[in-house]
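thoughts on these tokens:
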Amino acid sequence: MRTRTVKTPLLLVLSLLLPWSVARAETCAETVKLIQELYNNTANTCPDGESASNCSGLLIRGTTRADPAKGENYDVWTPSPRSKAKGAESYSYLRADINFPDLAVRTNNGYITTPTANLCRGQQPTYLQCAYPMDGWTYERDDRGCGDNAVTAQREQHCQALGINNGQAWVDRYNKQSGGTLAGENQYREQCAFDMSQSRGRDGRAMAFSSFLQARRLVGSTWFPMPTEVMVSIPAQANVMAFIYTEPAGRAEALKNQADYLAKMGEYRPVIRVQLPRFPGEKAQFFCDEQQPGFTGYSRSPGFCKAGKASTPGFGTTPVVNPAQAAAQAAQAAQAAQLAAQQAAQAAQAAQAAQAAQAAQAVQGAQAAQAAQSAQAAQASAQAAQAAAQAAAYAQSASAAAQAAQAAAQAGQAAQAAQAAAAAQAASAQAQAAAAAAAAAQAQAQPSYCAQYIESATWVQRDEPGYGMIWTLQVKPTECARRMGPDQTDRAFRELYEKYGKDPRWNEANNGGTMRRQFVCHVVGTPRKETWNIEPARPYVSHAASLSLPYICNPLPSDAGK
């Protein structure tokens, strides 16, 4: 059965219904502007002599929402029980000269915190306890994640205690470990952290972080896939500047986190899409999520401030107090949620139809058609998730507006105010019902990921034209991986890298990103090939060039730059 799709963009419909949200659209743009400025700032220290982390770069925490089915009950911006016990939380540090392709712990969403230099009056700063140029396996360590690793035989210490006071000294020690007696994860477990505790004083902290930056820049191209890790003191409340997602699959959770944060904390923060670099030399990019709920007119405090300037546009500090206005907003939000629920149901139908067509093509063995149907199914599933999240977010907006109307009615004494509050509460109930319908529709369209993508892989030496004897990783994918769509390539390659990327033969020092490019080329171009052979020695070429080569997916030295 052919599924009819809705041509009218949801954003256009909502903009007609919610003029009060459009008026505040600059909020996200201003946040992205500051995020870009922080990312581009590659200072070694701040103007006041403090650590560069106070005024440059981005502290990002990857998160996963609580699963009530597992008995979990927490908010992503609050410290986990493990973090509370440790006394610090793990973040990644990203900026133009410090890059990596994925968030830590295999997440696709999270938040960015406001740096100390941009906090507003009354907001409490956080402090870096230590910094690892690469993932430090901190959950196994004592001293707030900065000290000894319980798994290793030796006792780990701060870098300064070992006489390591600059980036080159750290790299020399790390290379000796990874290329010497250590193997597997021990090179991460036994790395030392640069101590950033308050006892070091301003100059000591600044020097330690500068050494961390230097070390990461020196190993950046070789260990590009590995994110940095810094341990941050636990504040009374996380200074969230923006909620983020890095893959389409993370968008729905980012929007839910945004809605929860407004409902529970009284704080509005925008949702930002972060496109992390895919290979060394590429830069991160930041975009406003175009269809997120706009600013509702209430936020307890701004997301960030700048010296000598007013609070960020769009972040008011005065709640809506007019009950009639609040009721009208709640009714509009409910109507928007109902429209979003309808779109979610239609997107779910489209996803199911595309997935059925994909399965039929798999039986027939038509690879090109199967790939196209896989892409359509992934796109339809993403649309369903987006629409469902939209409905939930607007339902949350309706609830917040209803609460504001009720409060205004209690503060006033007019019968008209009480009637407006009652109307708002009724509209909020309708919005919640619409959001529940959207969530049910979205659940039907969830894409099915492979439980395992890599069946096995083996390093062999082969005599290749144009190269001579080079190392080849012969990858045998699972049957599920041979049928995967483009939305799963990141998951598949991450599994491959985690299993085999720590091997010294996986050396992309001269051809950053080439292993991933060859891998994706095989996914798209030769999925039924018995083994996918990828070589670190081959140059990085564009995806189009890789597929068009007469020796598909296997560029020669002369193809460099294509």
Q: What stands out?
A: The two ends are 43 Å apart (CA to CA).
